[in-house]
Amino acid sequence: MFHFVRCSRLTRGSDRLLRARNNVIKSRELLLQHSRCEQHSLQWAKAPVSQSTSSTVIRLWGQAHKVLRLAVQRHPKVSPKVALTLLVGPATLTVTARLLGGVAYCHADFNNNLSAEVQVKEKGPEFSWAVLWEFVRPQLLALIGAIILAFGAAALNIQIPLMLGELVNVVAQHLREHAGNYMRDIRAPAFKLLGLYCLQGLLTSGYIILLSRVGERVAADMRKTLFTSLLRQDVAFFDANKTGQLVNRLTADIQEFKSSFKLVISQGLRSITQTIGCFVSLYVISPKLTGLTVVVLPCLVGAGALIGSFLRRLSRKAQEQISKATGVADEALGNVRTVRAFAMEDRELEMYATEVEKSAVMNEALGTGIAVFQGLSNIVLNCIVLGTIFAGGSLMGFNTRNCDLCCLVSQMVRGISAGARVFEYLALEPTIPLMGGGRIPHKSLTGRVDFMNINFSYPTRPGNQILKNFNLTLPPCKTVAIVGESGGGKSTVAALLERFYDPSGGVIMLDGLDIRTLDPSWLRGHVIGFISQEPVLFGTSVLENIRFGKPGATDAEVVAAAKQANAHTFITGFPDGYNTVVGERGVTLSGGQKQRIAIARALIKNPSILILDEATSALDAESERVVQEALDRATTGRTVLIIAHRLSTIQGADLICVMSNGKVVEAGTHLELLSKCGLYAELIRRQRSNGQHPKHHYCGFQHCCA
Ligand SMILES: Nc1ncnc2c1ncn2[C@@H]1O[C@H](COP(=O)(O)OP(=O)(O)OP(=O)(O)O)[C@@H](O)[C@H]1O
């Protein structure tokens, strides 16, 4: 500042520069007083994003108004232009500082809130404006309303200091001249200002209400759409992605996107309006320095965006690590019985602690990055303030002044990256649709199934071929059992029939029609009933669990299915009967009870084809007897595919197929296969020596050459 003063002394000869010097001297004092305001505004710039910016803008202008008042008091002849520019310039810078600072804080917030899983990919997921538009469109009216109100509130924010100036003028005039009626003179501007404050408050509440509605609706729609999209995905997708990680996208990522969306709109609109206001005011005063700002600002924004993108990468890695830790906790808590049974609490804790520790280190690095970014942006912005004053001082003689533009880019990018993670799964198209295709009328459906030359590898292990030229026919209303070595591909055959996967070669036919041409939802919902080794029930009532097999089934149908499945007696024995809540995954029921509810659930849809994946293997002898009885009743008149691990349960099957190396190597009835003395006889012999095959099941075994 003294430098300016000396400079202007040297150029005393020039009228223009003399004017400049005088202006600078006046402005120096103004600035000294203004520094309090500047400090305040920079504090504001450092405040967390969540803090209401409108209140700080008002506070800032409050400080500014004090400066104006003091300036007017001490320098009655000070040019209003000088006073105004010295207020508006730094204020604009402050807005910029707020934005750039906000980016860093957003990252901090991002860091805290997000535990979303981000798959490491060479190139991150892409954001689609078209997809966003689809979500925003239904809320367009509310959004437009919010934008108008926000613009209005921001415009008033610009008006308020001007009104304050008017008020100050009245006060200053009275202080100087001690003349006139103070109360009369002050009333009009004071009421005007009061009106402005009230209107500004109303507009602010209005746009916050509307914006929050838009944000919540958009987020809810996103959640529903993402959940729908996830549920539609191929089973292979779930082989490759952990449930906990998918749930994270539904929760944390959408939460993050919503916050950014609201923040960008509210803060962005405010900042843009304020900046445009400042810019226009200053352009009127000084087009030259306005031009200079237009050149400088994009460079700063560019640098900010670069650092921002580096921080985003860091943040993505940190999120991924948090997600890993969540995955460990999710698995341990979800399987707490197994953990407890093996006394693995310490190990799980250790694993979780390791992952959490790694994520803490990454987040610390991110925090350091943010801090550096924040520090640098503060330095740069303070330098701009200084530069503005410096340049302003020397250019003041030319009646020119500076102004700054705000930038929202970095902040938007943050929301965009969260949105991209959400949209990534929205855009995923399953290879096997959930519905669509032909249906065979129930009356003409025979339930014949042909597996013809099937080749198959799981998508997650493409190199490992499970089925090789596999052929099998399930004749209508007959029971076919598949046996073979563990891991030989028996359950895979059932999964292909359910169309959880499509074979890479060959065709599966139902009544002579390729199942790929049939409606998968009809196939699974009406044609095939599946009863697995470990039935999974939902944490609702027994009634709802059975009705899961046929939504819309009457209570009478539920009871009939339960009776067929030998479940009615034990269900009615519960105090709440069919309304008994079974606990998470049916944890409050015994294995046999769970299995019978699962059978009832499968039977209620009256399927033509029944798949039993070792449905009784997990039960004790008594439970097995009751369940087997239910199964015998259930299988009558249906095509049945039994995936058998214990050979004792399938001796009554019409056909037993022995699988080896991904294909059927032997087929026949129990006795036929025993007499062949092949692989089946060998499997029986092995199970007998393991004690898994009771003697009374050995009908015909003594005739075997083995
Ligand atoms: N979802 C999957 N993704 C990748 N590989 C899988 C998947 N499910 C099974 N496999 C692999 O496919 C092979 C066949 O598995 P499958 O469950 O069909 O065998 P199985 O004959 O039913 O075995 P078990 O009698 O032990 O139940 C195994 O090597 C298994 O590791």
From TrEMBL:
Q: What is its main location?
A: mitochondrion
Q: Give the UniProt keywords, A-Z.
A: ATP-binding, Ion transport, Membrane, Mitochondrion, Mitochondrion inner membrane, Nucleotide-binding, Potassium, Potassium transport, Transit peptide, Transmembrane, Transmembrane helix, Transport
ABC transporter domain span: 449-686
The Gene Ontology CC terms held by the record are: mitochondrial inner membrane
Q: Which regions span the lipid bilayer?
A: 140-160, 194-214, 268-285, 291-311, 379-398
Q: Which residues form the signal peptide?
A: none
Q: Where in the cell is it found?
A: Mitochondrion inner membrane
Give the top-rank taxon of the lineage listed in the UniProt record for this protein: Eukaryota
Annotated membrane topology: Multi-pass membrane protein
* Keyword Plastid recorded: no
Q: Which GO terms describe its biological process?
A: oligopeptide export from mitochondrion; potassium ion transport
Query: Which positions fall inside the ABC transmembrane type-1 domain?
Result: 144-396
- MF annotations from Gene Ontology: ABC-type oligopeptide transporter activity; ATP binding; ATP hydrolysis activity
Which family does this protein fall into?
Belongs to the ABC transporter superfamily. ABCB family. Multidrug resistance exporter (TC 3.A.1.201) subfamily.
Q: Return the protein name.
A: Mitochondrial potassium channel ATP-binding subunit
Annotated source species: Pygocentrus nattereri (Red-bellied piranha)
Where is the organism placed in the taxonomic lineage, from the top? Answer: Eukaryota, Metazoa, Chordata, Craniata, Vertebrata
